[in-house]
Amino acid sequence: MTKNSSNIMALTPNTSNKRETVCIFGTGDFGRALGHKMIQSGYPVVYGSRSTQISNLIPKDAEVLGHAEAAQKAAIIIIAIQRQHYNFLTPLAEVLRGKVLVDISNNLKLNQYPESNAEYLAQLLPGSKVVKGFNTVSAWALQSGTLDASRQVFVCGDDVEAKQMVMDIVRALGLTPVDKGSLLAAQEIENYPLQLFPMWKFPLFLSLGLTAFFFLYCVALDIIYTYIYEKNNFSFFIAITIPNRVCPVVALILLALVYLPGIFAAIIQLYRGTKYRRFPDWLDKWMLCRKQLGLVALAFASLHAVFTLVTPMRAFVSWRTSKGIISQALNNKTEPLNNTNAWLSDSYLALGILGYFLFVLLGITSLPSVSNNVNWREFRFVQSKLGYLALILCTAHTLVYGGKWFLSPSAYKWYLPNIYMLSLVVPCAVLVVKFVLIFPCVDKRLTQIRQGWERKPKYSE
Amino acid sequence: MTKNSSNIMALTPNTSNKRETVCIFGTGDFGRALGHKMIQSGYPVVYGSRSTQISNLIPKDAEVLGHAEAAQKAAIIIIAIQRQHYNFLTPLAEVLRGKVLVDISNNLKLNQYPESNAEYLAQLLPGSKVVKGFNTVSAWALQSGTLDASRQVFVCGDDVEAKQMVMDIVRALGLTPVDKGSLLAAQEIENYPLQLFPMWKFPLFLSLGLTAFFFLYCVALDIIYTYIYEKNNFSFFIAITIPNRVCPVVALILLALVYLPGIFAAIIQLYRGTKYRRFPDWLDKWMLCRKQLGLVALAFASLHAVFTLVTPMRAFVSWRTSKGIISQALNNKTEPLNNTNAWLSDSYLALGILGYFLFVLLGITSLPSVSNNVNWREFRFVQSKLGYLALILCTAHTLVYGGKWFLSPSAYKWYLPNIYMLSLVVPCAVLVVKFVLIFPCVDKRLTQIRQGWERKPKYSE
Amino acid sequence: MTKNSSNIMALTPNTSNKRETVCIFGTGDFGRALGHKMIQSGYPVVYGSRSTQISNLIPKDAEVLGHAEAAQKAAIIIIAIQRQHYNFLTPLAEVLRGKVLVDISNNLKLNQYPESNAEYLAQLLPGSKVVKGFNTVSAWALQSGTLDASRQVFVCGDDVEAKQMVMDIVRALGLTPVDKGSLLAAQEIENYPLQLFPMWKFPLFLSLGLTAFFFLYCVALDIIYTYIYEKNNFSFFIAITIPNRVCPVVALILLALVYLPGIFAAIIQLYRGTKYRRFPDWLDKWMLCRKQLGLVALAFASLHAVFTLVTPMRAFVSWRTSKGIISQALNNKTEPLNNTNAWLSDSYLALGILGYFLFVLLGITSLPSVSNNVNWREFRFVQSKLGYLALILCTAHTLVYGGKWFLSPSAYKWYLPNIYMLSLVVPCAVLVVKFVLIFPCVDKRLTQIRQGWERKPKYSE
Predict the structure, then answer these.
(1) Which of 3.40.50.720, 3.30.420.60, 3.90.1140.10, 3.30.360.10 would CATH assign to domain B22-194?
(2) Cα(first)–Cα(last) distance of chain B, in Å?
(3) pLDDT in tens, B233-249
(4) Residue of C159, C379, C459 with shortest CB distance to A148
(5) Do B149 and A461 touch (CB under 8 A)?
(6) What is the nearest CA distance from C451 to chain B, expressed in angstroms?
(7) What are the domain boundaries of chain A?
(8) Which of A451, B67, C134, C344 is 20 to 30 A (C-alpha) from A362?
(9) pTM of whole model > 0.95?
(10) A296-307 burial, b if ≥16 CB within 10 A, otherwise e?
């Protein structure tokens, strides 16, 4: 790229050796990848290894020495060896005294050991300053340069200066350090890369459970019932018709479940007359996964939207439409426009569209980069005002859609209600209670409580 | 979680007391929440309070002392009391001399006081170093740990070191400090949490105004006119038909309004022969809310897209289609394929789809996390080149859609044009003027001006 | 805004002069904009200029002096002049000794000079500490305050303290400094603002090439063939019918090409028995642009979805439907529901919907702000597990759609296969080889290799 690279090379030694030497214990996969990246970023790297035999996999510009000699060359030592072998470090305690030891280890499962690896290391070498870090980055990401996933490197440690030194290295490698506090946070940091969407588990399992239940319910009523009593084989309903009944039902229930814990919290606070007592644990957990519940609901609503839009393209629908038109033509008559039907059809579609539109807006606002750019007042306006409006519109959409069948006996096959009737229970309950809660007399008291007022203030003497 | 927690606890006192003690004046809601979070992050916290009586709401590990004693224990004092009570601090001026005072107060409305709370505090206690901060975080967010909204904490202050100390605490609490400069920025920071989408107000009001106007215009022409002259009750047009006429019109006008200020700016610069004179205020404001205008336009365009896609599902449309087919069948004839119609219908749909596709692309690019990852050249390429292409495609979509009716007298009910004709005025004007501006002779001059060239360079002597 | 502004003004001088004076050489466009912004942020600014004549464009609060006097007033000097004039700085070498020089220059094209401007400056003035920075920000963005594009300011330099000083200024201006390491990175930083989506070039050109090829292929088979042999003019197919055949084909091929390099990599690693030898260059580049390939595929898939959904609104489709119904009505018969057809139609739609749904999910996960919030395990779960599921669903969608025509001779016009048959080659190959690779015996070996195992470990002696 540069033609007078000789010049540049002449300049480099004078300048880049301002970076402090870093020592890496262990020449395994991650140790090598990290060393390579550090050399690229201008750090002199020295490896501490049992064998003085140099693997050709070790970066060329790095030195390889015995552990003790390597440690003496640097103020920061990265411990790229596995926890099982930490005890071999104890004889080196004198050499490592006062040095910054960076624990980059990961475990194979959550809470594998009673204490975190970094705390274990700190106990083994009480004279050294242990900092946890780098465990959230993969060797492959460092090697390939494709840091598509998180660039965040969580760092924790008890010594503030040691932590600062490590965070400077993190920054120099093009990553983003995040200070997580004292070494007590090491367990959390070590568990982080082992997690698989922990906040999503409850919403996903709940929605899968609801989906399975309603799917079987629909198969029974729409396919089996029709087959038994009307001798019609509508098994192909499994592909689109039934999913398109189940998706809106699950979406509406999940959306209502997003707002239900807020209702519970308000009732509990009103009953207790204070906001300073902790909510029950289940309510706390429920409130923390409301965003995920809402996004799963949005996914189901989106599927419902697309399933609905492809309706005119289905062979079954074309056939049904043709049949209807042909029978009218053969009977030589044209049905007049039913104005009530036109109103119902158009308004249920319009309500659904507007509800879904607000729902998508809520989803966009929950993108991290968008929610980082709004203040609390705006966030609450969107998530609470617009959220309730979306819930009202979607509930109204369902009511208008099925309203005419509520009193029709033919809608109750095997004396069971249709699933859209079941789907209305939770949203209507939420909306009714919320309507009570925004009555001025109730709302005023709730606002007072949330601003710190207490019915019976308690002071310990 | 950890079994040998006794060990860890033994370690903690030695290590985490490296954090400096923080003093909090005031044991109100926010003071308690902040203290709690700080203790969690390893800061020793001491409360300064009028009453030595200790509420059981105060975090257990915190000390509670009188104001003076508490202040002496810490270098940083967080003033968690309301502005009205600031004057009680004046007797403590001696104790607070040289200390860092963190003003975390918020007001109830924008610009409530002539000077910001932090500046008022600095005037009361000129010997202390006042730093503004934490006012953008809510007590509830700190308590619950759900920092879904902004994690950004704006910090300002005149003393650089004091500010640095506060920013370190912010970081330690897992929040992101943003240095906003000297204490002069305090007013802005205090106004921030009171804002409700300030940049969105003009675009939203404008679009609501346009929507209301066009809606009434359509109601008059499509429902009232039809009812009077054709005795048809098409009141259900309110639900879908009319919204689907209004949405694309508003979207197209707003999209044109995104590019209109750029046209004005170019004309003004060409006329003045310099880029160094400020634009009129209205133009400046208009240019700053172009992104919001564009996103509102995208929202209307999306509604138009969905309203259009549900068309075949409407009872009215099914009825109209059936009627047409039945009348053909009863007359025993089949209309041949009208090739021109097929061309017009397909090309207007294709133009709309491509225009909308580019529009969505522009929307995605304006997401903060995406626009942060492109450089200026790329951002301008997308927003200007692709943006104009979207405007051209959408204008062409409207022209092809309604082209055949321009010269038909039946399209002018009550001698008024249809609204899609009105919608074409601004976009066509923008496109025509832009076409003139990219003529080489004009464009060359404009480029010179934008690179700093001036027709009559002025130097003050 | 503030009424007692006199008070505030009295306070300001005492406080904001803690910011160090900054000197700017050059009073051009960018120098003025930067100076203006710095004064706003509380920095005293002094301009170094050839002429003592003061342009009224220079910010009012700034001083203008000769170069030497200006330089003496500040520790940081911003070099806002063009590279061609750098040599006029050599006489000032003594004055500039030990000062921090900030090179903010940009070039007109990539790699315009053999060495970067900043390195050239450092060679001219070896006694000064050169830092590269600010070149990614535009003067217009600084002036207007609309920093919609990147707020990131890349900074590099050999002197750590000098770099730190510059990064502090960047932060104070409300921008985000990103430390890119030593001055060797200057060339990369200078090239950055000249780039136009470098990672997108290959995916875009590839997709445009594929689109052009398949479009012409379709025009030949669907329009020209029909015109010659059936005398039907279906030229309007160009608008929607053919795009809606080309888009899914290109989308499916591109999606398969996202997973193909991973297959190649696995085969190469298995063959070599090690992961420590570099992949061929073309494979490396291919792997780095997989995200872009996937997003282009998503764009084509979205166009396909919308083109499909507008189908019932097309004049041609309405005409075809009417014709079919009328001919049935005139023949006085109703076709019964074809259950196989209903199954095929519904399941191909359902497969497409689910595949597209997963595809959109992958797209959302690749938004920078979302992918920054997932850990590696989660990112790989989404991109690999869900990605393959999307590929399987989309391939099945295509197979079910066209399955019945594979053996029908009428599908082979001019003995050429239809394009959906061509589109299945790559995805099916990828899925078959992947199926072999997840056989336990193969997968186990691959996992070993990826964890660092080698068939023939090599050590240099």
Answers:
(1) 3.40.50.720
(2) 76
(3) 888 899 999 999 999 99
(4) C379
(5) no
(6) 29
(7) 22-194, 200-451
(8) A451
(9) no
(10) bbbbbbbbbbbb
